[in-house]
Amino acid sequence: MNPLVEQLRHRLVVSCQAYPGEPMRDPDTMRRVALAVARGGAAGIRAQGLADIAAIRDAVDLPLIGLWKDGDDDVFITPTLDHALAVARAGAHVVALDGTARPRPDGRTLGETVAAVKERTGALVMADCSTLEEGVGAAAAGADLVGTTLAGYTAYTSKQPGPDLDLVARLATAIDVPVVAEGRIHRPEQAAQALRAGAWTVVVGTAITHPTTITGWFASAVAEAR
């Protein structure tokens, strides 16, 4: 097992991202968020955008999973090889990219992209998948980590209110590659359930680093009580 991946075993990764147009959509703000979650016990960081990745890499000495959301196509998480190379060169130890079966904008296969990233940069690759078949395919294509990130976010999968723990469990028994539980993990007990289902590591984002959404949860509950 790669030593960097071993550092994440049965630990928490925190996704430090803000959406375009939000007050926190700023690389230095995300750098500070990353420092805060590192102090809280995060074992790794997931970050979006080249400037954010570079700023966090300089500030935080933890494994960094980087991605670049770009474009209007279905495949927009690090959609091309050029995006993936840029993410690695910005400082990501692990490049997260779309690991679904959908066509990639540059026409390359997932396997071709994974191989090129490893050969040209030495970075590891995390495949964000939405189904068991995609996860198996991503592992066969050479991905170092397979995530459930896109379960419920593709046209052919159903979005559950919480994490897709069934997919986590099925992937954990189907592949030898570490499985990353990610997506709609909103409570500590759900993170623990994901590990018990077989996840190597758990990524939590919104419930920790997105105050707009968290505030909305509380505001809605208060409104209902009122």
Automatic annotation (TrEMBL):
It comes from the Bacteria. GO terms for cellular component: cytosol. Pathway: Amino-sugar metabolism; N-acetylneuraminate degradation; D-fructose 6-phosphate from N-acetylneuraminate: step 3/5. One of its GO terms (biological process) is N-acetylneuraminate catabolic process. SUPFAM superfamilies: Ribulose-phoshate binding barrel. Its EC number is 5.1.3.9. This is Putative N-acetylmannosamine-6-phosphate 2-epimerase. It comes from Micromonospora echinaurantiaca. The lineage of its organism: Bacteria, Bacillati, Actinomycetota, Actinomycetes, Micromonosporales.
